[in-house]
């Protein structure tokens, strides 16, 4: 069984992530990988307040995250790598972080995004990055909470943003 799990959720740490997923994976730590959040003391403070005290939280920019992720893998620490969007995941892969599966939970609808599922909306650029992740062998699964049936996100995405058009 893997020890490091990857999830896209633009709300980062919130009730579903910390209750359902932390219990499901028996998490000991969360690594938030986001260049903007890593530089924002207010967001970092909010995250430290909402995170359960028994789960260690790291907030890293993309360039610093691989070291912490690889340490978690080596030490077999149950860890959730949490990102707001696909760009951070691609950045991790480009730095030789191996991931076989990414669970997509939520990307809020905004005017520039098209709805893919009930909880996931993406821009054409984000769709392109997701397609690139899939082409690199990363399984993309949409699943809000662990008890939901996992769905093939690449198939869902391709209905709205076919690969050849992105």
Q: C-alpha Rg, in Å? A: 15 Å
The biggest beta sheet reads: 7 strands, mixed
Spans of at least 5 consecutive residues whose pLDDT stays below 50 are none
Oligomer: single chain
Number of strands: 9
Taken as a percent bin, the fraction of beta residues is 15-25%
- Overall body shape: globular
**Mean pLDDT metric:** 93
Could you please describe the fold and organization of this structure?
With 166 residues, the protein is α/β, with parallel strands linked by helices. Helix content is 39%, strand content 22%. It has seven helices and nine strands. The strands form two sheets. It has a seven-stranded mixed beta sheet with strand order 3-2-4-1-5-8-9, sandwiched between helices. Helix 5 (86-94) packs parallel to helix 6 (124-135). It is globular and about 45 Å long. The mean pLDDT is 93.
How is this fold's topology laid out?
Elements: E1 4-9, H1 15-25, E2 29-33, H2 35-38, H3 41-50, E3 56-60, H4 65-75, E4 79-83, H5 86-94, E5 101-106, E6 114-115, E7 121-122, H6 124-135, E8 139-142, E9 151-152, H7 153-160
Parallel strand pairs: 1-4, 1-5, 2-3, 2-4, 5-8
Antiparallel strand pairs: 6-7, 8-9
Helix pairs in contact: 5-6
């Amino acid at each position: 069984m893997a020890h490091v799990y990857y999830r896209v959720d633009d709300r980062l740490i919130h009730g579903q992530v910390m209750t359902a997923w932390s219990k499901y994976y028996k998490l000991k730590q969360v690594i938030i990988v986001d260049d903007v959040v890593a530089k924002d003391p207010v967001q970092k403070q909010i995250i430290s307040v909402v995170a359960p005290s028994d789960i260690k939280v790291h907030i890293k920019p993309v360039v610093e995250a691989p070291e912490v992720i690889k340490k978690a893998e080596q030490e077999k620490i149950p860890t959730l790598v949490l990102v707001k969007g696909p760009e951070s995941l691609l950045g991790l892969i480009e730095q030789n972080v191996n991931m076989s599966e990414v669970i997509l939970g939520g990307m809020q609808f905004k005017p520039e995004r098209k709805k893919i599922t009930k909880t996931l909306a993406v821009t054409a650029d984000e769709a392109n990055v997701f397609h690139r992740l899939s082409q690199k062998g990363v399984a993309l699964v949409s699943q809000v909470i662990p008890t939901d049936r996992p769905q093939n996100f690449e198939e869902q995405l391709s209905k709205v943003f076919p690969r050849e058009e992105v």
